[in-house]
Structure formats: C-alpha cells, structure tokens
Amino acid sequence: MSNTNELLHRALRPIAKYFDREDVEELAANREGEIWLKTSQGWIAEPDPEIRYKFTVATCRFIANLTEQKFDKDVLPILAATLPGGHRFQAVVGPNVRYEIDDTEGMCFCVRLFKKDKKFKLEDYRLEPGQGLKKTEKQGMVQKRYSDTPYEDLVGAMEHGEAVLISGATATGKTTFLNALVDFIPPDRRIITVEDVREVLLPNHVNRVHLVVSRTDAANKVDYPQILDSVVRLTPDAIICGEISISNSKSIYRLMTTGHSNFMATIHAESPEMALRAFWQNLTQTGENIDPKAAIDIISSSFGRVIQIDRTSGDRIVTGVELPGMIKEIISDEARKTGHA
C-alpha cells in the first residue's frame, strides 16, 4: 500500500473498522454519533461516538485533495469518490443537510463496500440451469387497487411503495397531508427527502436524511441536479421530493428513469388531470431537448396514485385518489396542443 493510501486509511479509521465485517454491504451516517449498517437482513443502527461532523468534513477534504476534486463545506459541500479498495463514497455536509426540523446544518455519508474476495455465481441470484425465473413479491409502483375504498386503497399503496403525486391549489394543505401520509410508509424503510424548505416530518422513521436546496444563490452553489445525484448514491428505499416546479422537474423526471419507483411529491393543480399536465408543462419549460414520446411514456407509467385536495368553506377535503390510467392520452393531448409532440 502506498504512503498516500496509508494516510487515507488512517484518516478513515472511524469507518474503516466496518469495511472488513463479513455481514456488512454498506454503511451510512445520517447524523452524529450513529452509524447504519446494511446487511442481508436489512439496515441496523449502532451507536458510534467517532461519527462526528468534524470527522466528515475533514474526511471529505482529504479525499477531495487526493482525488483532485473541488470540495468546500460553505460553497460546494458534496463529494463523490472511489476509495482505495474500490469502496464508493458519497457525502453531503453543511446547511444542505438537516436531520431535525430546527437544524441549521448537518452531515450524511454513505459507503458502498466492494468485497473483492466475495465472488458471486449465477446460482446466487437464483438463476439455475434448466429452471425458470423465480418470482418475488416486488415492492414498487404497479398501478393496482388494494381496496375498493379510498382510505384503505391509499394505505395499501403506501405500504407497497407506490409513487404518489399530491395535487392541490395554494393553501389546500398538500404538505400537511403528505406529513400524515408518510406515517404509512413501513418504518424499516430508509427515506431521503429533498426540499427547498425543510417541512417533511418523519417521526416514525429513524433511518432518514433530509436534504435542502435553496431557492436563491445566497446559500451555496448546490442545485437540484447535484442533490438528486447524491440521493441516488445514498441508497434510499423511498424518496420524497417536495414540490415539483420548473427548477426541479427535469431532475425528478430523470429520477423516474433510475429505477427508484417509490417516491412522493406535491404539485400545484386543480385536478388530477391538471396535475399531470402541470408536471409536463414544467418539464417543457426547462429548455432541454427532451424527446416528447419518451417523456410521455415515462410520466404515464411513473405514478401509482394522484391525490387531489380541495378547500371548501375552510375545510380541506380529499376529492380524488386516482390511478393515472389515462395519463398517456392526457399528456399526449397537451403535448400536441403546445407543439411538443
């Protein structure tokens, strides 16, 4: 091992002690004093007083210098790198990470371990000579009804990891409803939220990371594409994206193509149909040359539910829990009208 690698190994000592554990596939830190270890049995948490904010910042600076990358906790506080041994490292620090609602800064990182001595065979994936494919009960967006009644159907959709879009006009309580809905996500899921204002509450989910993207340039240079690139590498089971707008629609659309089907978001619209059109309209205003047919196909198959909330005489009422079965035709019509198809 080179002197540089020896120095890095010494700098990584607080987390390197987990690298050789046979049962650990991945490790993550969401806040100080605690480490999450992913094993074949799922995520488990262990207290670790060496996991501190200062350690994370210092480690990021060391790795950035070693890999000749830019990192600054006040300007560009995101780092992705491959460590000696092939381990993949992703970190975000500073005001873009806030574990509790009143935090002003925080830290999170994830290390996906590479076990060079652990060789897998096709049979380890239950692919065996002369046999058909094995069927599993896959979680994720399948666009099916779980009950004939809206309440039970929506609870079933949340338990099975369906993607949900919450629609409503201003002051209809979309985020408040979202905070009630997340209680039905199974508590063992790892959740990452991305918002421009820290509003989503997850009191029943301890394996969580809250990322914040400022709407202005006053904070730092972190934008939605950079944050959502980090989200994918932080190994979420569920992603909550906050409100869909022109600034983040392209990133969320791209997220739909990465296999992360269990995500939630809100949007300003007056009906489920208008919600789907609003997503498409935001996407067309990003200025990017996105293939209309491909976009329509992806959006049409990406949501398991569209929930509509209205406000009448001061009351907030759910008026729709819809499967977007006709979404392709709806968006296709809109695309033709606006000349994007």
Q: Topology of this protein?
A:
Elements: H1 3-11, H2 13-16, E1 26-29, E2 34-39, E3 42-47, H3 53-67, E4 78-82, E5 88-94, E6 106-112, H4 150-159, E7 164-168, H5 174-181, E8 191-195, E9 208-212, H6 224-233, E10 238-243, H7 246-256, E11 263-268, H8 272-284, H9 292-300, E12 305-312, E13 315-322, H10 327-338
Parallel strand pairs: 7-11, 7-12, 8-9, 8-10, 10-11
Antiparallel strand pairs: 1-2, 1-6, 2-3, 4-5, 5-6, 12-13
Helix pairs in contact: 6-7, 7-8, 8-10, 9-10
What does this structure look like?
With 341 residues, this protein is α/β, with parallel strands linked by helices. It has two domains: 3-112, Beta-Lactamase; 150-189 and 237-338, Rossmann fold. It has ten helices and 13 strands. The strands form two sheets. The chain has a seven-stranded mixed β-sheet with strand order 9-8-10-11-7-12-13, sandwiched between helices. It has a six-stranded antiparallel β-sheet with strand order 3-2-1-6-5-4, sandwiched between helices. A hairpin with a 4-residue loop joins strand 1 and strand 2 (34-39). Helix 6 packs parallel to helix 7 (246-256), helix 8 packs across helix 10 (327-338) and helix 9 packs antiparallel against helix 10 (327-338). The model has no long low-confidence stretch (mean pLDDT 86).
Tags for this entry?
seven-stranded mixed beta sheet; six-stranded antiparallel beta sheet; alpha/beta; 341 residues; Rossmann fold; Beta-Lactamase; 10 helices
